[in-house]
């Protein structure tokens, strides 16, 4: 449980600073250490990020900070919440398509790696890219809907995808985008977790979940304090470093999942997934 706490704590420090939430780090790292099934990891990661963003956004609003652009980001967040439910359904559909459930992890890991690479390329070149300034509530809602679907399917809460969208479509600076991203993640993760409770919770150990959530909140506390001491360039550097790490571990996880699906006898895998509650 100490490992689970440390992973959540460190991930949510970076998540709170960069606006990634932490799930984009927690999910692949838990996959890497084989913490559980893809559904269990997604659920526990989502609960951890929800705890962290609830604290961070609540603290920000209580202290009167004006970094969250409510008029623009609220319809974006509502769209992300609805998209989160759709993304969860999409994940369940894809999962049920495979007799071998290990392949679901392969698909998720590869998709996360590809999206993160695209995000990294954009981040490195964003100073040369002309941005937009969407103000339409309907436009914000549709963008949020797409964000929610992708994020929920990947089990990451939003992460770097949110930031690129806020950079490009709303011309936000790094630290402002980070604060608004956490607001969006709060909505999307809340919807995703509620949806999981309605459709069926995967098998998990409550002490581990509570430990991870505690780590997430503690990471959010430390991350907020560090963020105040960092400028936009420092946050960008941390963001780029985190994306490189996510890309590397996602490709490795995809390799491990694919290898396992080809090597393990089907009977062994079926009994394993039955044991963990699939």
Describe this structure in words.
This protein is about 80% helix and about 0% strand. With about 280 residues, it is mainly alpha-helical.
Number of domains: 1
The rough form would be described as globular
Low-confidence stretches: 263-278
Indicate the structural class: mainly alpha
Q: Describe the sheet with the most strands.
A: none
End-to-end Cα distance: 23 Å
> What is the overall pLDDT average?
84
Write the layout of secondary structure elements.
Elements: H1 2-18, H2 23-32, H3 38-62, H4 70-97, H5 102-125, H6 137-154, H7 159-170, H8 174-199, H9 206-227, H10 232-263, H11 266-275
What labels would you give this structure?
278 residues, mainly alpha, 81% helix
Compact summary:
This protein is an all-alpha fold.
